[in-house]
Amino acid sequence: MARIIQSSHLIPTISSSFLHKSSLLFQWQNLSKTSHSRLLINRRFSTARISMSLRAGIVGLPNVGKSTLFNAVVENGKAQAANFPFCTIEPNVGIVAVPDPRLNVLSELSKSQRAVPASIEFVDIAGLVKGASQGEGLGNKFLSHIREVDSILQVVRCFEDNDIVHVSGKVDPKSDIEVINLELVLSDLDQVEKRMEKLKKGRAKDSQSKMKEEAEKTALEKIQQALMDGKPARSVPLTDFQNDAVKHLCLLTMKPVIYVANVAESDVADPGSNPHVKDVMNLASDLQSGLITISAQVEAELNELPPEERIEYLKSLGVDESGLGNLIRATYSLLGLRTYFTSGEKETKAWTIQSGMTAPQAAGVIHSDFERGFIRAETVAYKDFVSAGSFAAAREKGLLRSEGKDYVVQEGDVMLFRFNV
Ligand SMILES: Nc1ncnc2c1ncn2[C@@H]1O[C@H](COP(=O)(O)OP(=O)(O)OP(=O)(O)O)[C@@H](O)[C@H]1O
Ligand SMILES: [Mg+2]
């Protein structure tokens, strides 16, 4: 319930008529010469679920700074994006704007009434403990929360503080990371084995489903082997078809991970000198994952200060800026996310897609109907849009391309979708 209320904050123009397709269609501008196709000038619509916002789950052992980081990101999001319909959906889910200067440039050129940045949903997940996959702690419940996110930010404690209890008695990032990763691996293994048992019954009737079942079985055998070796599912090379076949399992170790080394105030200026951070760095690189160093505590304290005192505080720590903007941008790019824009008089909007998405898939981020009925996408590169000044001018100059369903959307494309539903 809270989600839906807050969604309407995020996209204030969603009204109850959104639910009625006919009225929704009525508002789309029909610029097509054929009576069936419509040209969408993206404006007011998004799915009731906030589909442009991908979810990053903040995961880690208890007491490592997850909530401190979450609160800092969310509070800062509010402060940094006064114009952004930012919201906390539930106490532990918050939406944060992704800073992007291109948005305002496009918005000014199109004389848009408003500019809506891309966003990431951050989810603060309760601490995992050893044995979680066997139901220890709050075990399976929290593993299921991780299953729902698109990517994982694994917070690793790199600060020493005798007053703050460490569940295993001492600060040891390598062991902490291993504990978490083992729980994720064990949970996936359980899931994979249950699924393999089911697949043995071979329920597929037609040849298409049989092929899919076979692909799933082959993929699961490979994944099972990797998991038994303690390796994540994402380390297994799979074909696109196999990947698709196992997607429904939402395996935890298939999700991209960024390690967040949470350091003490005294390490902010030179985190690399902290041996715990070095350990995390080495592991992150071995595990082909990203790494961000931040002090959740400093970020939380910065939020408490009036703006003029923030600069003083940062200076006293030997740094120029807060690490949060960086964290958000890094999360966005390390997760292979890309931005495309829609730009019109009503609104200029940045949409988030996964790298490699085709034009219909990108259209589907706005609404599933646009993917289903996709015909083509009028596309212009960001810099060409800026040099021409508008879609019409870009068309006149031959900079506007008409792209079909196989077109892979490029970073910064400005797009108009033609579709037929
Ligand atoms: N970089 C840091 N330096 C010093 N103290 C920190 C730092 N980050 C967090 N803390 C402190 O660590 C304690 C635990 O933080 P927090 O509640 O955010 O942990 P958590 O991972 O959310 O724990 P739980 O799993 O129990 O929810 C708090 O007292 C917080 O102020
Ligand atoms: Mg917490």
Structure description:
Keywords: ATP-binding, Cytoplasm, Hydrolase, Metal-binding, Nucleotide-binding. Residues 54-336 form the OBG-type G domain. GO terms for molecular function: ATP binding; ATP hydrolysis activity; GTP binding; metal ion binding; ribosomal large subunit binding. The chain is of the alpha/beta class. It has a domain at 2-47 and 345-419: Beta-grasp domain (Ubiquitin-like (UB roll), Roll). It contains 16 helices and 14 strands. It has helices spanning 2-10, 21-27, 66-80, 101-109, 139-147, 173-200, 207-228, 240-247, 275-286, 296-304, 307-317, 324-334, 359-366, 368-372, 382-388, 391-396; strands spanning 38-40, 54-59, 88-90, 93-97, 114-116, 119-124, 151-157, 257-262, 290-294, 337-343, 347-354, 374-380, 401-403, 414-419. The protein has a seven-stranded mixed beta sheet, with helices on both faces. A four-stranded antiparallel beta sheet has the order 1-14-12-13. The longest helix is centred in the middle third of the chain and has 28 residues, at 173-200. It is flat. The chain starts with a helix and ends with a strand. The model is unreliable at 1-51 (pLDDT under 50).
